[in-house]
Amino acid sequence: MERPLIGVVGNLLVAEGGFSPGLERNYVNNDYVSAVERAGGIPVVLPVVRGQDIAEAQVSCVRGLVVPGGYDIDPLLYGEEPTRSLEYVYRDTDIFQLRAVKTALKLRMPVLAICKGMQLLNVACGGTLHQHIGDLQGVFVQHSQNRKRHCPSHTVVAEGESLLSSLLGATFPVNSYHHQAVKDLGRGLAVTSRAMDGVVESIEMEGVSFVVGVQWHPEMMLTGGDEMLPLFLRFVEEAGRFSATAGA
Ligand SMILES: [Mn+2]
To answer: pLDDT, tens digit, for every residue of 143-157?
Structure first.
């Protein structure tokens, strides 16, 4: 099977200091690119653009979509007012990223959505988020870890049969860099695992080949071990199969 083109959805970063005051940079973290390459895909970065038609055209060029982590999503985009615990928001980026996710879903393209990416997947399907899980009763697990990025820090327990549990097992440790989480689930999505305090750690869409969202950072874990490799291998494999069926 030929290596499929995998789009890694971009982010905007406002550079600070030095010779670039206020310059915006279109970027992705290199761990995503490395993970896709290692799993047999051809990574391409899809930079943030203004136009909806351009975003749709970008996604139509690839056979699988990686939706990365980033800042908080503008809560107005899921029908809620910002709470006091909301952190930095970049609405232009959110709008682009939501368009990219919706385009991929419409095409039934394989999607691997990571951290904020999983939250975008949920919002794209009409779901909502907890803006700050530290404000919730009963959330006792440390979800913003203080250790190296590839090191797992808390346990995840799978719920029911899912693509995720078939790849990673019934319970496994993950790293954690989030202060928000899925609240109301979007249409067509199922929760496939939770942390010990009930926080949603992964979701997936039923009836499609591969639309998986994870709240942890498997691409970072890959820099220290192979535990998360099955997730990327299956994603790229399904993207290869999507290539074949897309007929392009
Ligand atoms: Mn977590």
So the answer is: 999 999 999 999 999
Residues 6+ apart with CB under 8 A from 133: 139, 143, 178, 179, 180, 181, 199
Percentage, residues of the chain above pLDDT 70: 98
Distance from Cα 155 to the centre of ligand 1, integer Å: 8
- Helix, strand, coil content of the chain in percent (nearest 5): 30, 25, 45
CA of residue 243 to ligand 1 center, whole Å: 33
Pick from 96, 95, 81, 121: nearest CA to 210:
121
Q: How far is the CA of 245 from the centre of ligand 1 (A)?
A: 35
- Which domains, and CATH codes, for the chain? 5-246 (3.40.50.880)
Instruction: Kindly state the DSSP code that residue 189 receives in the 8-state scheme.
Output: E
Catalytic sites, residue numbers = 115, 217, 219
